[in-house]
Specification:
Elements: H1 3-27, H2 33-55, H3 59-63, H4 69-78, H5 89-105, H6 113-119, H7 131-155, H8 157-164, H9 166-171, H10 177-180, H11 183-195
Helix pairs in contact: 1-7, 1-11, 2-4, 2-5, 2-7, 4-5, 5-7, 7-8
Length: about 200
């Protein structure tokens, strides 16, 4: 097995273990959907901050300003996060934030099937799942994805930077992406990203 593939499997397993630990400790014991959303939202925000810290040259300039969750998601999108493994992640994060804000600003708010369907666009879950299980499935995917991204940023920052900025590098006529990564490297990168999918 090649180095990138081993690395991807290790990151995936580590991320899954960490995700399972969080879900089992803080989400599954709770029957209350408000508590589930609030705890997951806090954890997701911490993961986003970890990715920003690993991805930005001077993250403190942004993060010390105590910017909103929505702005942090905008920064992730500006970094090219949607060009990675899962193209819907920022949309899912924004929907999670919208649901959280609805609970925080309206004491009478009740989560609806439309909220959950918005979170689960393109994701299949068993029809027998109730709203709570569907919500947990979506939150699990978001958390696992962000943990894997955080770990890639920490472990392979150059690789991560090249992959998320590929569209930018292509515009530079003096940069030859293929000189940095040969055909086998590019296949390994695709394999790496595929191994991270849940």
């Amino acid at each position: 097995m090649k180095s990138l593939e081993k690395s991807a499997l290790r990151i995936k397993n580590l991320s899954k273990k960490e995700t399972d630990k969080f879900i089992n400790r803080h989400i599954l014991p709770n029957k209350d959907i408000v508590t589930i959303i609030l705890k997951a939202h806090l954890y997701i925000e911490k993961l986003i901050e970890d990715i920003l810290i690993s991805s930005l040259a001077e993250p403190k300039i942004i993060l010390k300003k105590n910017i909103s969750f929505a702005k942090k998601v905008d920064l992730l999108e500006a970094l090219g996060i949607n060009n990675q493994i899962q193209s819907n992640i920022t949309k899912e994060l924004r929907t999670t934030n919208k649901i959280r804000n609805n609970f925080v600003h309206n004491i009478e708010y009740k989560i609806t099937p439309n909220d959950i369907n918005e979170l689960l666009q393109g994701v299949s879950v068993p029809k027998s799942f109730n709203l709570r299980k569907k919500l947990i499935s979506s939150l699990f995917r978001q958390i696992a994805y962000l943990q894997a991204l955080r770990d890639i940023c920490k472990e392979r920052p150059f690789f991560f930077n090249c992959m998320r900025n590929k569209s930018l590098y292509v515009k530079d006529k003096t940069f030859n992406f293929k000189k940095i990564f040969d055909k086998d490297d590019l296949k390994n990168i695709v394999t790496f990203l595929e191994k991270l999918k849940y």
